[in-house]
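Hello Y.,

Per our agreement to keep a running log of every chain we model this quarter, I'm adding this entry. I've kept the format consistent with earlier entries: sequence first, then predicted structure.
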Amino acid sequence: MIHEIEFAQWDRQRQSRAALSALMARHPAVVLRNVPPQPRHQLNICASLGPLVGKTPDWGGRSYLPELRIESDQRINPYNRLWHCDTSWAQTPAQYTTLYALDAAHNCAATELADVATGFAALPKAYVREIECWRAFHHVLRSRQTRFSHIEPAAPAPYARSNRWQALAARWRLGSTMRAVKLAETAPPGVLHQVVATDTPTGRQYVLLGEHAWCLEHLGEAASVEALDALTDACVGQGAVHRWRKGDLLIFNNRIHLHRRGDGVEGRRTLRRVLVLPA
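Predicted structure for the entry above:
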């Protein structure tokens, strides 16, 4: 289930930084309704959970600006239809994913969440003993070249939308409360993660899988695809669906959830993504 809150109520109560972390520990997926569109609101909420994922250096070059990634139906990424964990290709994947609906038609595609901690807890004990020692390589390009080579990549984006000025303005408004860190992608074959991991905020065990996991350390490529697909299918049975409304801010634990774009493209949607690293 996704816990819902009205942004005006949350803002009026001036909830503390610790309050949001405690809320996310109890409800790993939360949606704030009717959040104003200015990036500073989303960034301020994200900054209370931990450092943000950055992309470009600020003018001084001493730190990074938070990445405000725009995902629009003007260019639909076919890989977003696959279950994935954001930035699992990094040594330290994002702890939380936040998505804000800049625009959302009533019949636009939903976002589906799969609770892979609950899925892991339901696995047979013999299966758990088998996978406890597994380690998987995560790499975006290698995964798409091998495990998902049957999927035709999207056409190049018609334009690049920069949010540098918005990020600079938010940095100026929020000051020292906002810190951004750039993630470095490991060269092929990618970063090696334990398949069974423990989520620090909740203490729950989960399986670290998703689209970017392409090969198991102890198996060849072909056998890895079969094993990863089977384990993913076994763990994504429990979940929730978020149907978008303009002004929604969806925050979910990126470690214990895999997520994907649901079917349906009749209505347009434009989402702004900000990622949060562990505190």
